[in-house]
Write a structure and sequence with these properties.
Number of helices: 10
Number of strands: 7
Shape: globular
Structural class: alpha/beta
Order of helices and strands: EEHHHHHEHEHEHHEHE
Largest sheet: 5 strands, parallel
Length: 208
């Protein structure tokens, strides 16, 4: 059903490929003195300076300074990175195998993610996977919010991806864990699937 007529698959990163732990990220930033961490850090859509980082309004160094201003004290860059990385609970090996299998089967694979340069420094390094491959090794193209200067569910980020890749939304399956993102994808003509954080949805790709 899900792959009938499908040539392209667009995945979100957090909550879809990666299992997220928003509560741990909040706990870490609270421990660093960011008292509004629970308000600013959301499982699906960040707020304030965290959103500005994902939108590309703030660069990485400016973000570090903004966190220190928010906390009203000095916090090292490394500690701020430690806070962000609290979001990453797991990078399941079976999902990376799923991506490799889909590529062998001839699907075009894309990533469309609201993310930031702090997380992506890790994701684009050999530390991303046990076999020493980075996130980019598993996809044809990465579409990252902070580079594109816009975030989901704004239609602009989808349109930029469509124009750059040449994909036809009606031939594309879009998988995301944010209901607003999935609704926008559906509105723009994509086939969609709303994933739950940490869900094993590999059954979608069983031979049909």
């Amino acid at each position: 059903m899900y792959l009938k007529g499908i040539k392209n698959i667009v995945f979100d990163l957090g909550g879809v490929i990666l299992t997220l732990n928003q509560k741990e990220a909040v706990r870490r930033f609270l421990s660093l003195g960011v008292e509004r961490a629970e308000e600013l850090l959301d499982p699906y859509h960040q707020k304030g300076i965290f959103l500005e980082l994902e939108e590309g309004i703030l660069g990485e160094e400016a973000f570090y300074d903004a966190v220190r201003a928010e906390a009203g004290k000095y916090i090292s860059n490394d500690d701020i990175v430690w806070g962000w990385m609290g979001f990453i609970e797991d990078c399941p090996e079976y999902k990376l195998k799923m991506l490799k299998d889909l590529k062998v089967r001839g699907y075009n694979l894309y990533l469309l993610s609201n993310t930031n340069p702090v997380i992506m420094k890790w994701a684009l390094s050999p530390n991303f996977s046990k076999e020493g491959k980075s996130l980019s090794d598993f996809f044809d193209r990465l579409y990252l919010s902070y580079q594109m200067k816009c975030v989901k569910p704004h239609p602009e980020i989808f349109q930029k991806m469509i124009e750059d890749s040449g994909m036809n939304p009606s031939e594309t399956l879009f998988i995301d864990d944010g209901i607003a993102n999935v609704e926008m994808g559906k509105h723009l003509g994509f086939e969609t699937y709303l994933a739950q954080n940490g869900e094993d949805f590999c059954y979608l790709f069983e031979s049909q």
